[in-house]
Amino acid sequence: MPVTDVKHDMNDLTLTIVAEFAAPVSRVWDVYADPRQLERVFGPPTFPATFVDHSLTPGSRSTYYMTSPEGEKHAGIWDIKTVTEPSGFTFEDAFSDADFNVTADLPVSQNSYAFTATDGGTRATYVSTYATAEALQQVLDMGVVEGATSAINQIDDLLAA
Fold first, then answer.
1. Any idea where the domains of the chain sit in the sequence?
2. Model-level pTM?
3. What is the residue-averaged pLDDT of the chain?
């Protein structure tokens, strides 16, 4: 399993997930840059993602939804802030309605995805920062750790294909 560490810090308001992949940084980058590849690994296996718009370009907005086993769609947006290809990018992640308007009563996170070369491939470090401890606790209660871990653990199969 690629995920090697998961921790949340209520004082720093962060959730950090670290994963190791047996592939070069440029290949891991491609997974996140290409919406069709990203769809195969973003979201838990039982909640597949569909990216409507996606470009890792500063100032762009990616829109997506995940579909539940019952067919319900849960939408979200990424507002891309910075991009340093292939070593990472930052973005704001928010829940949204079906028209991709931010849902005000659900947490918004600031995210940094960093990809670092290792002897065996790539270390990916995913850090999500929330505005308040309550917001972090809300996503923890919603199952973000389980969902993100199961999503990231799908990447190995994609890289091997």
1. 3-160
2. 0.94
3. 96
